[in-house]
């Protein structure tokens, strides 16, 4: 069974294809609740109505299930509190400010 | 932390519907540039000339409106979180519209006024009414309205006004009946199309897409609201007073209102760009940013034209029209297509594979380097054309139109690459 820190590390494998930065460094993952039966990931997206909606949440589900196939993965997408750039890691901020795409 | 939404179902319509409109638009863009180059000798003098009317309608019906239809079928469901009312109607509309557009452009080209021109205009009206019905029925289902929805609602209204005015103009060419001067009515038709239909869509979509692509946060949309109020009062005012000779003095109030509205929109765009987290702009956003700068120049020129007797400076309308179609709309469309099309293809082909196998990043869907060349060539072609139109330099026109054609070919090559990915 993987712990919360490990789940967070696994989630770094989910990269926003438009921005090119993983969802953890973007600050999109709000909470991880791990029980015997399930892993519940509470997360947001940079903009409500984002067209990447289904792709990113589906990706989160797939990647966690790969590591814990016997447990249910629940992705809980929320818009409160709203995402702001302040939630990004310093590395992500720097990368976005400098990168040419 | 409130749970306000669970994973929503996909609202997007089938890819085949949207891609059909996009492919038709891309072909039209290349044809538009090819016709400009082949008929460069006709692109001088007064704008009321069969070839110019034909070419303008390849641009407006084939290139600009076709791409807006496709983009709106994709974007409205996403932006307003609602399913499109009817995919079947979107499909039927495409064929009626395409036949109507080809017919009308053919009739302008050979100045075949009368029955066939009227039938084509009726088909176009029918297609636009089907589109409006489909979108209004979709709007009825919307639970969460936003500023983009407001702009899109106004755009639909002006599309109908433009279409009906276009039909009346088509009939008037064969059997004159409009009491207002035909050219003045044409002016009204063109401005309702450009400011009402196309700009309302462009502006509304800007408030959603540009922050999304640049990760812009922490700003208010108050300029967007005021821009909407000013532009709409101005445009509705002009549409009304043109029909009543004695109210013509109000023109000098309503026209500046539109210019002020566009300035407010541009201030809002500036604020969005200023608050962005992604500092460096990719090719798609660079095209878009330059398009907004071109809108600054176009607005200055448009305001100037409104206060002078522009009919006496015969090249001025052509220069103004060229700036609107190529400087603002085409640059913006090309830029936004570099953002939207890779995403659409990616979404339909790879989104189901995420987390299961390695999928490409959006920037890997096409060659950014070739797109950059397309950008520089388009800028050179744009200013070259404006210079050559101003000084009526034939060699300059051939060179500039050739470069614009090259730029459109680069764009279509990149789009084809994405579609085949």
Description:
The complex is a heterodimer of chains A (101) and B (421). Chain A starts with a helix and ends with a helix. In chain A, a hairpin with a 3-residue loop joins strand 1 (29-34) and strand 2. Chain A has 101 residues and is an alpha+beta fold. Chain A has helices spanning 4-11, 53-67, 90-98; strands at residues 29-34, 38-43, 72-77. A 3-stranded mixed β-sheet of chain A has the order 1-2-3, with helices on one face. Chain A is built from 3 helices and 3 strands, in the order H-E-E-H-E-H. Chain A is globular and about 40 Å long. The relative contact order of chain A is 0.21. Chain B is an all-alpha fold. Chain B contains 12 helices and no strands. Chain B has helices at 15-38, 50-80, 87-109, 115-140, 147-174, 182-214, 222-241, 251-274, 283-306, 316-350, 368-391, 394-420. Chain B is globular. The two termini of chain B are 40 Å apart. Mean pLDDT of chain B is 90; it is low at 1-9. Classes of the chains: A alpha+beta (101), B mainly alpha (421). Chain A binds chain B through residues 14-15, 17-20, 30-31, 42, 46-47, 49-63, 66, 75-81, 83-85, 88, 93, 96-101, and chain B through 1-10, 12, 78-81, 208, 211-213, 215, 217-218, 277-280, 282, 343, 346-347, 351-352, 354-356, 359-363, 368.
Count of separate DSSP helical elements of chain A:
3
Number of strands of chain A: 3
Distance between the termini of chain B: 40 Å
Uncertain runs of chain A: none
What is the radius of gyration of chain B computed over CA atoms, rounded to a whole number of angstroms? 21 Å
Overall geometry of chain A comes to globular
**Main structural class of chain B:** mainly alpha
Q: Quaternary arrangement of the chains shown?
A: heterodimer
Q: Could you state the order of secondary-structure elements of chain A as H and E?
A: HEEHEH
Mean pLDDT of chain A: 85
Radius of gyration computed on alpha carbons of chain A: 13 Å
C-alpha end-to-end distance of chain A? 38 Å
Q: How many alpha or pi helices of chain B?
A: 12
User: Proportion of β residues of chain B?
Assistant: under 5%
**What is the spatial order of strands in the main beta sheet of chain A?**
1-2-3
Which range best describes the helical content of chain B: under 10%, 10-25%, 25-40%, 40-55%, 55-70% or over 70%? over 70%
Of all protein chain pairs, which has the greatest interface, and how many residues does each chain bring to it?
A: A-B, 45 and 41 residues
Q: What about the largest sheet of chain A? A: 3 strands, mixed
Give the proportion of residues in helices of chain A. 25-40%
The H/E string of chain B reads HHHHHHHHHHHH
């Amino acid at each position: 069974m993987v712990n919360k820190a490990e789940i967070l590390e696994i989630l770094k494998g989910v990269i926003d294809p438009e921005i090119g930065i993983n969802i953890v460094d973007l600050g999109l993952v709000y909470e991880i609740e791990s029980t015997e039966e399930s892993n519940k990931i509470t997360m947001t997206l940079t903009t409500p109505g984002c067209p990447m909606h289904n792709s990113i949440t589906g990706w989160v589900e797939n990647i966690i299930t790969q590591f814990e196939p016997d447990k249910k993965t629940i992705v809980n997408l929320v818009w409160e509190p709203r995402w702001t750039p302040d939630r990004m890691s310093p590395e992500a901020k720097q990368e976005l400010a400098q990168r040419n795409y | 932390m409130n749970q306000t939404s669970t994973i929503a179902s996909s609202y997007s319509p089938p890819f085949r519907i949207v891609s059909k409109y996009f492919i038709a638009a891309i072909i039209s863009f290349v044809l538009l540039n090819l016709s400009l180059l082949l008929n460069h000798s006709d692109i001088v003098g007064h704008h009321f000339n069969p070839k110019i009317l034909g070419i303008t309608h390849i641009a407006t019906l084939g290139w600009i409106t076709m791409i807006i239809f496709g983009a709106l079928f994709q974007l409205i469901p996403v932006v307003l979180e609602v399913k499109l009312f009817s995919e079947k109607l979107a499909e039927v509309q495409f064929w009626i519209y395409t036949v109507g557009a080809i017919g009308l452009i053919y009739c302008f080209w050979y100045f075949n006024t009368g029955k066939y021109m009227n039938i084509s205009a009726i088909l176009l009206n029918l297609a636009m009414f089907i589109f409006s019905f489909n979108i209004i029925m979709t709007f009825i289902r919307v639970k969460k309205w936003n500023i983009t929805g407001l702009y899109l609602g106004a755009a639909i209204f002006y599309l109908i006004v433009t279409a009906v005015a276009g039909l009346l103009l088509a009939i008037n060419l064969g059997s004159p009946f409009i009491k207002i001067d035909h050219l003045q009515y044409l002016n009204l038709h063109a401005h309702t199309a450009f400011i009402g239909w196309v700009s309302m869509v462009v502006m509304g979509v800007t408030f959603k897409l540009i922050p999304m692509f640049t990760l812009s946060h922490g700003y208010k949309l108050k300029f967007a609201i005021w821009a909407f109020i000013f532009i709409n009062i101005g445009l509705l005012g002009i549409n009304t007073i043109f029909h009543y000779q004695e109210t013509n003095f109000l023109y000098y109030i309503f026209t500046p209102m539109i210019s002020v509205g566009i300035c407010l929109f541009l201030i809002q765009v500036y604020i969005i760009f200023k608050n962005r987290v992604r500092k460096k702009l990719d090719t798609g956003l660079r095209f878009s940013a330059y398009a907004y700068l071109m809108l600054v120049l176009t607005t200055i020129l448009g305001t100037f034209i409104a206060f002078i007797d522009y009919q006496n400076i015969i090249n001025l309308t052509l220069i103004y029209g060229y700036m609107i179609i190529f400087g603002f709309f085409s640059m913006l469309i090309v830029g936004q297509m570099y953002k939207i099309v890779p995403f659409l293809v990616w979404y339909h082909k790879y989104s189901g594979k995420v987390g299961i196998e390695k999928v490409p990043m959006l920037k890997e869907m096409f060659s950014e380097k070739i797109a950059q060349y397309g950008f520089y060539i388009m800028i050179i072609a744009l200013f070259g054309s404006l210079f050559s139109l101003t000084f009526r330099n034939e060699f300059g026109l051939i060179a500039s139109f050739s470069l614009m054609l090259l730029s459109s070919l680069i764009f279509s090559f990149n789009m084809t690459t994405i579609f085949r990915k």
